């Protein structure tokens, strides 16, 4: 059986109003060398749905032996298969077909993703569209790709020969699983590599859909391999595998540090997209309504499980009270609901462990700031991982809820007086992923953007991505930037080839007399 979609329904628990997708697979398996397979040792782990927290399926639990099989298949496809040697135009056609298939299956994909992760269905649909767009973007980029040529008149022509590297190990988190997988799969494959994907253990359901999509689009066997399992087992084996020269990782900063150390003996290429505690800075001359709407969306969309969430809002004192009042009132109106309902704005957090972590910060926040909205379970949701959109005001920069990534629908608001103070507050965390600046002062907006410690800055805007721009963080938020041609740089070797056009350019040693 080659596609998850054709398998039949597994055991699930229904609760009031909760919708379970039809035709769920019976189990989640690895996909190695064109086949769905179980773990070598037969082990599985429980996967739960975040509305009921009931186990709805078993997933194959990958270990080193499974990673070995997947890497061997990927290596064979790289060394012997057609993919790395195909013309960019041919690879591009396959990638466009993948994008078409992702688009036509968007509804199914979003349904599975929303069920498995607790993301609101409308937002899961948006992420499915983004996944298709990622493939389209890299399909176009590899055809348009130009490489450098340098001339030394009369002496040399030197050019860059771009080559795929080999087997890329892709390790992804659970917050927007399918979209983040596409963010790595598309450039890795576009550049001619083969891959082993290790998706997050909390949300393995949608990753299996790639297999059917890739097969139908004509991706050769062995180019894409998938190993499910825990980070400390399957992920760790991938990081330490000697035949995987590249690891692209998105996840927590602490995990990134560990992976860095584990990859060091092999001198692997690493791309690290890590955690964040991004500030939204609102100056008194900003458009108040736009700033409130955007900063509400910025921290409560994707259930607040968003790496670039603007989870610290710094507000200039002149309209601090008005801002806090409007913000709290609006946060209370944000609609928490079942993930499959179209009107839901905040769904269920991914897993009870994560729910406990977020709730512990909510309790801590009550001792560190002034609670002005939320602060616990939303009314009417006595079970499942639901958290009311929670707002703390007057949060000092020393507070843990100001410093630490919560990764849930919880925001800290802090006042400032001057631009200098705002910048100091904005930079006063270990993270540096994104920053959002709200002001109508042109000079200030640019000066602030350039001074803030953040890999990405938006002026008078939410996180709206232009796929050509660099994506990544500074400080503890990551190392290396992907996005646009930088992703292709990461997934390729740029070999310098030098051609002599003139006299051979060296003194003659050992010359005969
Ligand atoms: P995580 O670090 O716990 O796990 C991420 C992935 O790494 C999972 O697949 C996990 O199984 C694997 N893993 C865990 N330990 C490993 C090990 N020792 N070796 C190899 N792999 C291992 O992160 P998470 O909880 O799944 O995701 C949330 C985090 O991801 C947040 O910190 C968030 O900010 C971050 N994130 C960052 C970005 C970004 O682009 N910067 C985007 C999304 C999420």
TrEMBL record:
Transmembrane portions of the chain: none
One biological process term in Gene Ontology: 4-hydroxyphenylacetate catabolic process
NAD listed as a keyword: yes
Residues of the active site: 273
Domain Aldehyde dehydrogenase: from-to ranges: 36-497
Region Disordered, residue ranges: 1-24
EC number per UniProt: 1.2.1.60
Family: Belongs to the aldehyde dehydrogenase family.
Protein name, as recorded: 5-carboxymethyl-2-hydroxymuconic-semialdehyde dehydrogenase
